[in-house]
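[Discussion] Sanity-checking designs against the backbone

I'm trying to build intuition for which residues belong where. Below is a structure token string of 300 positions. I'd appreciate it if someone posts a full sequence so I can compare it with mine line by line.
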């Protein structure tokens, strides 16, 4: 199994900023310490190009992200101050998901230790998301003739409004989002299948709803699945509002992966959100996801 990481491309944030940027480095270090894969399978991606990004994003918006043309209001909506280093970082983030997509087609399963930036819409960013790595990657593989149909299984606690915006009226990419109904974004953009859950939803109710959604999402037998394995469904997440346990999240991951494996569908796994009150708890949850992926990768 190939794991793509890009945490070495750092960017400045103001002191006390609420975004847990350090979790990416901590997760990569945890993956290395646990020897989840051989060192040669931990891969530095190629950054996404302008031409790849424009398959899902407005060219003028891309240009403003890359050259520092975002307004103050746009930066506030994104939640991150622009810098050249940030622009570089998000190109590598998308590149990691593109690389992981190609690896999944060859091996059945691959992982990016980031990604899942599902609030980025076609012509605007939001919620710490500048470019939508999932939509770009799916469109890149479609343009290369490697995949015709894709499915997005979005298990981040927040609804995937950006992915829904980009793929509206696109029957080749099916978007399924299971999320906290009362959580951000408060003005949701409907995807193909949305399951909104009440605050405080725990393991059993979550897994039952997910099981039902997977049946509908996978019925078309897509050529590739994108699984956004957000850790922010955990009961101790600062931004979550749901109440899954660590064991419940493991059951979620296994349910998604085995449903795809049983149908012969390759899977790209991205980490998406995670804002635990204890960042090390978030990292432990995401490491659990990566380790489960490695254990199941032999089934493909």
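Best answer:
Here's mine. Compare freely.
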């Amino acid at each position: 199994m190939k794991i793509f990481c890009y945490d070495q491309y750092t960017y400045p944030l103001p002191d006390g900023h609420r975004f847990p940027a350090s979790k990416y480095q901590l997760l990569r270090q945890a993956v290395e310490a646990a020897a989840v894969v051989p060192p040669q399978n931990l891969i530095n991606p190629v950054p996404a190009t302008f031409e790849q990004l424009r398959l899902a994003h407005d060219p003028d918006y891309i240009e403003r992200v890359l050259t520092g043309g975002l307004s103050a209001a746009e930066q506030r909506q994104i939640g991150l101050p622009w810098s050249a280093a940030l622009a570089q970082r998000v190109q590598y983030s998308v590149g990691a998901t593109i690389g992981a997509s190609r690896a999944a087609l060859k091996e059945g399963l691959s992982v990016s230790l980031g990604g899942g930036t599902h609030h980025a819409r076609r012509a605007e960013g939001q919620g710490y998301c500048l470019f939508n790595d999932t939509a770009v990657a799916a469109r890149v593989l479609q343009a290369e003739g490697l995949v015709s149909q894709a499915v997005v299984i979005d298990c981040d606690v927040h609804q995937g409004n950006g992915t829904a915006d980009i793929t509206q009226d696109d029957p080749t990419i099916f978007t399924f989002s299971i999320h906290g109904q009362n959580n951000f974004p408060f003005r949701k953009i409907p995807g193909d299948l949305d399951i909104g859950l009440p605050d405080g939803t725990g393991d059993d109710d979550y897994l039952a709803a997910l099981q039902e959604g997977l049946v509908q999402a996978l019925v078309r037998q897509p050529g590739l699945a994108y699984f956004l394995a957000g850790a922010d469904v955990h009961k101790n997440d600062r931004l979550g509002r749901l109440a899954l346990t660590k064991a419940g999240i493991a059951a979620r991951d296994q349910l998604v992966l085995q449903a795809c494996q049983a149908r012969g569908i390759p899977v790209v796994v991205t980490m998406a959100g995670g804002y635990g009150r204890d960042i090390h708890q978030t990292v432990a949850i995401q490491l659990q996801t990566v380790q489960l992926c490695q254990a199941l990768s032999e089934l493909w």
